[in-house]
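Consortium newsletter contribution from the modelling node. Members have asked for a concrete example of what our holo predictions look like. Here is one, prepared for the manganese (II) ion complex that several groups have been discussing at recent meetings.
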Amino acid sequence: MAFTLPALPWPMEALEPHIDATTMVIHHDKHHGAYVANLNKALEGNPLADKPIEAILADLSAVPEAIRAAVRNNGGGHFNHSLFWKLLSPVGGGRPSGSLATAMDRELGGFDTVKAELIKAGLGRFGSGWAWLSLGKDGKLLISSTANQDSPISEGQKPLLGIDVWEHAYYLKYQNRRADYLEAIFKVLDWKVVAARYEEVKG
Ligand code: MN
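And here is the predicted structure:
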């Protein structure tokens, strides 16, 4: 069984003007496509290829050392992007409600603080990586950032929301203005999806 590139849930131009169609085509078809192809290549003939990508990333020590870096980078790229696309929507924006909003108030000082901290995490990531809102091992929300395609799953966390801050995610439209891109992302974030993930993993 091979890993496959998931289709986008909306047309390439759906997130305009916040995320332009050309960026989406290259980001999904070329970048995410390459992560999937390279993951399949690395795991060819290995029984790990039959496991869900989440299970592989949760235990990278079980991956043979010769292919571990390839699986970490490309498997992380596959999982992170598959999540990212689901979090974006032309009818996104606004703020969460329900138990996710309550947990943000209780554990992180509320949505405005969460947004500010996610932007800070994205801006503070030197080079390529991601900003994350996850459920930590203690069952509480936390904000973090990872380098490259590393996933919070490999840290024992449950990622609820990831924001790609690689230059390939924004450079065509925003060039060096990562802060403007991060503000734009919040206009297309689908908090219903994040809230549903929170309900699913909080136990
Ligand atoms: Mn990306």
